[in-house]
Amino acid sequence: MEEKEQSKKTQQDLLNELHPIFRWRVETILSTLSAMGWQPKIVFAKRTEAQQTEAIARGASHTKTSWHVPSTIGVSAASKGFVQVVRGNAVDIVDRRYAWGGPAANKGFQFWNDLGTAARANSCEWGGDWKPKKLKNGGYRDQRDVAHVQMKFTEEPPQSSFTV
To answer: Considering the entire predicted model, what is its pTM?
Structure first.
């Protein structure tokens, strides 16, 4: 089956790209925001590696290892010298009236704060909580990604080694 163009994906298409547990949490986040009077909209869920590279080029992301990209994996320490493979999912959520413009251009905009509260209440990580990154030149890059919500999960049993 051929992949739909990103701009032609419906909200249901984007939700269907997510792990079932994360999808349920995102649906709850969207409902919470709607009940507060916001008009939440998922802009991105799954990205291809090429889409992630393009996001980096335009400054929308700072890493190739994004949970938007299904091939991204991590490793987490488990008990007694074992490790677990970690995968994840991510979505970018905006208020459809503003996206990242107008009042939403300010990272202190109330929608972003409400999104963060809803994400944390649903055991998800919110990009607005990320700390600034120190650069080699001594400056800092504000890498808070206020539209970003992610969840990491493990489905494989702990193992003593793995190959990628």
So the answer is: 0.82
